[in-house]
TrEMBL record:
InterPro entries: EF-hand-dom_pair, EF_Hand_1_Ca_BS, EF_hand_dom. GO terms for molecular function: calcium ion binding. This is EF-hand domain-containing protein. Residues 50-85, 105-140 form the EF-hand domain. Keywords: Calcium, Signal. SUPFAM superfamilies: EF-hand (SSF47473). It comes from the Eukaryota.
Length: 152
């Protein structure tokens, strides 16, 4: 659910919608706005810390056949049904989430994702950690929006 909400927010941004097909990407301010929305939708208990339990809620959301894992096919099928133009972005995110590269996201992958998001290594994902993580991801994947133009 977390990345789905994030991708939908990016796709529905006026700048993305209007510039899709042109050589303009999202601005830094627009990315920050999306991260704000992403944080709000992810931190469901509004306690300024993203818990492992909050991150694990995505497993049930995307696990279409309820087998306890999310396959690349489940993830991309779900996302492409919502926003087909962002299929390549969905693959890139899945690659980030799939820590062991087995094309199945399970609790271990999500735990490793949580550890990656814990930028300062204190065992929790604070709002600052979350923003720093997603800023880095967005900069790394900016070429998927705006046809090769990176932020900066």
């Amino acid at each position: 659910m977390i990345s789905f909400l994030f991708i939908v927010c990016v796709a529905s941004t006026p700048a993305y919608s209007q510039n899709h097909g042109h050589h303009e990407g999202l601005t830094e301010d627009q990315y920050q706005e999306h991260i704000d929305k992403y944080w709000t939708s992810s931190n469901t208990d509004n306690d300024d810390v993203l818990s492992v339990a909050e991150l694990h809620t995505i497993l049930a959301y995307y696990d279409l056949n309820k087998d306890g894992t999310i396959t690349r096919h489940e993830y991309t099928t779900f996302l492409s049904a919502q926003t087909p133009e962002l299929l390549s972005y969905a693959h890139a995110l899945y690659d980030i989430y799939d820590a062991d590269g087995d094309h199945h996201l399970g609790m271990q992958d999500l735990d490793e994702l949580y550890a990656k998001m814990d930028i300062d290594g204190d065992g929790t994902v604070s709002k600052t950690d979350f923003y720093n993580f997603w800023n880095q991801i967005l900069h790394d994947l900016a070429h998927l929006h705006g046809h090769g133009h990176h932020l900066g």
